[in-house]
Amino acid sequence: MFVDRLSQAQRQALLDLAVIMAGIDNDVSAEELQYLEELASNYNLTLDLENHGANSIDDLISIVDSKQAKVIVLQELIKLSYKDGHFGPEEQQKVFQIAQKLGLNDPELLLAIERWVRQGFDWLHEGEQLLG
What's the pTM value of the predicted model, to 2 decimals? Predict the structure, then answer.
């Protein structure tokens, strides 16, 4: 898992950003909640669904300080956005805003990360079909 490459502080920042992302459409789906809970559990992080505004996005992003960490965080946020079945306009806008704040303004890079995530979901779905 690429999240393993992040420091513990970067993982917590990722989780806090993911909570913000999950709530962007004012409806945290069961799949999104499961993702958040698994991330928190797998890495011994604090999941706070109520107080997600305590840290500003800028504060959280400042913790993500290498290009590798930035790409991993964006990949995970896009993956979370796909959890409810679609990457909606509000989610796309928030991911784009976070990418800009991270200094990753290259549209081709963003498309490549999204394609990477989408292919991962397709791969899992295809495997489920073969096993089912």
Answer: 0.88
